[in-house]
Amino acid sequence: RIVAVGDYGIVVLSDDGRSFRQARSVPTRAPLTSVFFIDERQGWAAGHDGTVIATADGGETWRVLHQERGKERVLLSVWFENARHGLAVGQFGLALETQDGGATWTERKLLGDNARPEEADRHLMQIFPGPAGTLFIATEAGGLLRSEDGGARWTLVQTDNKGSFWTGLALADGTLLAAGQRGHVYRSTDRGLTWARSEEHTSELQSH
């Protein structure tokens, strides 16, 4: 099944990759920017107004877990390690964490209280898992946040990229890729400790 989310609380589903239909029940009109499933039935979506919604039936029906109407807090990516532990991140360093499947959320400063404002307030674009239990967040200004313990502690790895990273992924051989503004693609072969620019012939790359 394909599940896609978008403006005005839209969630569309497809079981053949050709025809799409709206989910039966979505209790929000907030723009949704990210969706993540841990299996074929259980998933979460996040977006504007600090919105997080969840489904237990493959995306047919959803319920609101978290929402902050009127506060203009935008979540750009949601990720769950398992059915209980999850993270949602977004603009200006916004990071929320749950340990109970999304019933309650705690705001976090991922780089700690001593981080410089220009680092702590970066937009956090996408969470993606890496090899050997590592976890990454693509950020603006050519940075990647890196964790080796499921998101408990984070460090900033700064590349020489001046533009934003929109997305990242791990290949089957453990190679990491990060891509984004101005078509830049960066690679890491040491579990995200160092990154080097790849030769690319692309325009701007983005993934949600």
What are the key terms here?
single chain, 208 residues, mainly beta, 4-stranded antiparallel β-sheet, 1 helix, 19 strands
Description:
The protein is mainly beta. It is built from one helix and 19 strands. It has one helix spanning 117-120; strands at residues 2-5, 11-14, 21-22, 32-37, 43-47, 52-55, 63-66, 75-80, 86-90, 95-98, 106-107, 124-129, 135-139, 143-147, 155-158, 165-170, 176-180, 185-188, 196-197. Strands 4-5-6-7 form a four-stranded antiparallel beta sheet, with no helix packed on it. It has a four-stranded antiparallel beta sheet with strand order 8-9-10-11, with no helix packed on it. A four-stranded antiparallel beta sheet has the order 12-13-14-15, with no helix packed on it. A hairpin with a 5-residue loop joins β1 (2-5) and β2. It is globular. The model has no long low-confidence stretch (mean pLDDT 93).
Question: Would you summarize the structure shown here?
Answer:
This protein is mainly beta. It contains one helix and 19 strands.
Which structural class matches the secondary elements? mainly beta
Largest sheet: number of strands, sense, barrel closure? 4 strands, antiparallel
Radius of gyration, in angstroms, nearest whole number: 17 Å
Q: What is the tally of beta strands?
A: 19
Mean pLDDT equals 93
Q: What is the assembly state of the chains in this entry?
A: single chain
Reading side by side through the largest sheet, how are the strands ordered?
4-5-6-7
The residue fraction in helices comes out at under 10%
Low-confidence stretches: none
Number of helices: 1
N- and C-termini, Cα separation: 17 Å
The geometry reads as globular
Strand content: 35-45%
